Amino acid sequence: MLCPGPRPRNAAATRTAILDAARERFAAESYDDVGMRDIARDVGVDAALISRYFGSKDDLFLAALESCGDGSALMQGDKAEFGKRVAHEVVFEPKKADQLKGMSIMLRSIGSNRASEMVQTTCSAQFFGPLQDWLGGPDATVRARLLAGFIMGMSISRELGGGSFDLEPAECERMRDRLAVILQALIDN
Amino acid sequence: MLCPGPRPRNAAATRTAILDAARERFAAESYDDVGMRDIARDVGVDAALISRYFGSKDDLFLAALESCGDGSALMQGDKAEFGKRVAHEVVFEPKKADQLKGMSIMLRSIGSNRASEMVQTTCSAQFFGPLQDWLGGPDATVRARLLAGFIMGMSISRELGGGSFDLEPAECERMRDRLAVILQALIDN
DNA sequence: GACGCTTGTCAACAGGCGTTGACAAAGCCA
DNA sequence: TGGCTTTGTCAACGCCTGTTGACAAGCGTC
Fold this sequence. Notes:
homodimer, mainly alpha, Arc Repressor Mutant, subunit A, Tetracycline Repressor, domain 2, globular, DNA-binding
């Protein structure tokens, strides 16, 4: 989407363009692998401008992470269908849900020393916390950890299989169904 | 364990010392965060020596990964107790099991562009494959993916909570018990 | 004892990184 | 039109990285 000629002068638009590009980049690559110059090239802007708008790379990463919104979108809709809905999204539509994009960013960079602390605090505030409150009932904390862990684990597992668990479509469906049952059991409890 | 004076000349010992140090480092930090000079300092040796013994950093990483052995250790013991055993190790003794150390390395570096391919192939060969063969029965592939995903996810979740899921000890026990039931159900199926 | 191979150290290189300050040009206001 | 602020570019800095080749010292062998 790069246009020839000089970039029109529009600070607000440029800022959000940078933020959008950063979100995409950090969802696809780790904190260490994403360079300021990469994001700048995506937007069609000089890397120095990013520093001026967002401060440091850490600040940009945090802004991108928080721009994904909290995980509450996961929890909208019928509670009795949570298992089916989430299992379907995790297995078949990893890129669709915005809250899963936030999780992609976390998973990509949780290993990095520079990013792990930001990831931890954000994850607690935007994922564990809301999930736990929404669950309610006995052992809500424990069930939230299990749910979150399972969802993250399946995302990692998909990643390891190269985007599709390295499974046949029919097998994916059966996995989705099994996963749905397990998740739902943790919801109902 | 650094001794003063020059290092005794012993190629084999030095080589394994380097490999051990690399395994520890890569289990604790991501591929990008681990520097050749860090490992060299741990061993008390010059970084150049590592290059000569192992070739490139990629080669060293792969050697460290493969030195953890395959995941078959996870599958030894009574099949009827698999759930309990693994749940206990995942929740309470993350550092104990060697095969979990291999998984730590994978989880730390799966996000890194340079390491992800090595992690993927190693994970398939040493973790998914053996688990699937060992499981047998209907839908072995699907159940193996679910099991592996859950185990990895709980490891990540523990990491995010700062080493203990951010839970009380009593809660950890209840989580272990719930996890054991879920894992065992996937084994038996 | 002198040679030669092995083992380890040291200094340096090329390349990449995030960040900074000076500079250019666009747009606004008087 | 002239000045001033905003927006963007450019070149450069200091730092860190993996890797290399030259050099030093230990050790076995003739």
